[in-house]
């Protein structure tokens, strides 16, 4: 990111999200075919405005997975895949069963899933076991040396995986493998993160709804619909606002293409062919405010659910945080720790850059920071500072006694302000 882009993006942020977040027309999505497409243009056209787009296969043609996981006919290369993964335990969902608003999962040896998949194809894409879908497999974490793909630069400012890699607990990098007919029910991504999904082989159909449209797809009890194509949506008493919903953005994603799914866009996905894909959930300074808003909403829902005990429990606020973390995977305390890791990395990076006469810094904290440059780190710190200010003014956060946290948001905010006075 150059200084001009930094200035432009900061002005957009200051003007308020509603003024620059626009929904794409239901029949149009940008297609990026040039490999030399500029990161700054992507940042301003898609990340900040929260707009979807598709990248052509040119961005994946040199991936090892595209060369080694696929046959010459463009089908999954079961023989090669078995050589790589064999007895590895993998999560497998049954698309024909429903558990709340998702598909129930089991852990199977990889080779057992491949045996099922080959039989499923031989039986005309049907099985008494149902339609099984290998999904949410942390292949990268299990096989870091496999070098199956490289993250495109557009998605390299990835705070989620930066944080979870730092604490060595989890990651949000996944592999999906499924036969024709496998699918994922209607949902939005974790923490209202972005996601990118690359088809290694096969085709997918995506149905996407802009943020806010999901409220028209809830039943009279407030529950989100499981399948946006189900006839039950036509029952006005059960889904009173369905007639107000816009038509979804439909995208057919071909082999090798990458789709960028913006923050808060609910979606439903079908495998039109036997398909393998790689997916990352990620977020950064562009959608940090949406993550914070999501956490506030989740906490509010928990508080409403157990409001009758508010005046009888001294630790009611802490108890709400525990429930919130069990439901979403994060609470306010960890969110503060998350912001500190991100900020500390950028403060260290900018410190290492100071005094450097060349465009490259002497000791970059990470390859991503070195690639994106100091101006991007400044933008990131400004966004963290804005969120810390919101947190410190939030009444629910105040009741957690922020001064007692191991991560002191007020101290971190002061560090960022001092650093900004130095570099700006």
Describe this structure in words.
The chain is globular. Strand 1, helix 3 (39-47) and strand 2 (53-55) form a beta-alpha-beta unit. Helix 11 runs antiparallel to helix 13 and helix 13 runs antiparallel to helix 15. The protein contains 15 helices and 13 strands. The chain has 2 domains: 24-210 and 246-282, Jelly Rolls (Sandwich); 288-423, no CATH class. By secondary structure, the chain is α+β, with helices and mostly antiparallel strands.
What is the structure about, briefly put?
Helices cover 38% and strands 17% of the residues. With 424 residues, it is an alpha+beta fold.
How would you classify the helix and strand content by structural class? alpha+beta
Shape category? globular
Q: How many strand segments?
A: 13
CATH topology name of the largest domain: Jelly Rolls
Organism: Paramormyrops kingsleyae
Protein name: 2-oxoglutarate and iron-dependent oxygenase JMJD4
Keywords: Iron, Metal-binding, Oxidoreductase
Domain JmjC: 140-299
What are the SSEs and their pairings?
Blueprint: H1 3-14, H2 17-20, E1 30-32, H3 39-47, E2 53-55, H4 64-68, H5 78-85, E3 89-94, E4 105-109, H6 110-122, E5 132-137, H7 139-142, H8 159-167, E6 173-178, E7 183-187, E8 194-201, E9 204-209, E10 249-253, E11 258-261, E12 266-271, E13 275-282, H9 288-305, H10 316-328, H11 332-353, H12 367-372, H13 374-392, H14 395-398, H15 409-423
Helix pairs in contact: 1-13, 9-10, 11-13, 11-15, 13-15
């Amino acid at each position: 990111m150059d200084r001009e882009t930094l200035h432009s993006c900061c002005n957009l942020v200051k003007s308020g999200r509603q003024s620059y977040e626009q929904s794409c027309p239901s029949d149009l999505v940008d297609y990026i075919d040039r490999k030399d497409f500029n990161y700054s243009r992507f940042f301003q056209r898609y990340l900040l405005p929260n707009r979807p787009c598709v990248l052509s296969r040119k961005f994946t043609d040199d991936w090892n997975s595209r060369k080694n996981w696929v046959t010459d006919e463009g089908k999954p290369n079961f023989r090669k895949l078995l050589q790589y993964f064999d007895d590895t335990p993998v999560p497998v969902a049954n698309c024909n069963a429903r558990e709340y608003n998702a598909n129930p999962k089991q852990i199977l040896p990889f080779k057992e899933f491949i045996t099922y998949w080959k039989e499923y194809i031989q039986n005309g894409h049907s099985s008494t076991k149902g339609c099984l879908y290998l999904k949410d497999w942390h292949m990268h974490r299990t096989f870091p040396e496999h070098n199956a793909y490289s993250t495109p630069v557009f998605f390299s400012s990835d705070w989620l995986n930066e944080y979870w890699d730092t604490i060595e607990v989890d990651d949000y990098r996944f592999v999906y493998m499924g036969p024709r007919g496998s699918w994922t029910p209607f949902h939005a991504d974790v923490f209202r993160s972005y996601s990118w999904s690359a088809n290694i082989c096969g085709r997918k159909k995506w149905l996407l709804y802009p943020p806010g449209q999901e409220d028209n797809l809830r039943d009279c009890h407030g529950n989100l619909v499981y399948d946006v194509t189900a006839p039950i949506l036509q029952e006005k008493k059960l889904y009173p606002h369905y007639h107000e919903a816009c038509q979804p953005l439909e995208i057919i994603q071909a082999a090798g293409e990458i789709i960028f799914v913006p923050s808060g866009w609910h979606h439903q996905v079908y495998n039109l062919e036997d398909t393998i894909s790689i997916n990352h959930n990620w977020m950064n300074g562009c959608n940090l405010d949406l993550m914070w808003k999501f956490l506030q909403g989740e906490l509010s829902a928990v508080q409403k659910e157990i409001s009758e005990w508010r005046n009888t429990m001294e630790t009611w606020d802490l108890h709400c945080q525990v429930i919130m973390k069990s439901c979403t995977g994060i609470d306010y305390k960890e969110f503060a720790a998350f912001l500190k890791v991100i900020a500390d990395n950028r403060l260290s990076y900018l410190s290492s850059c100071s005094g450097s006469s060349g465009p490259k810094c002497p000791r970059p904290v990470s390859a991503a920071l070195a690639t994106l440059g100091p101006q991007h780190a400044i933008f990131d710190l400004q966004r963290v500072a804005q969120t810390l200010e919101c947190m410190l003014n939030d009444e629910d956060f105040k009741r957690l006694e922020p001064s007692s946290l191991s991560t002191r948001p007020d101290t971190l905010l002061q560090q960022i302000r001092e650093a900004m006075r130095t570099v700006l």
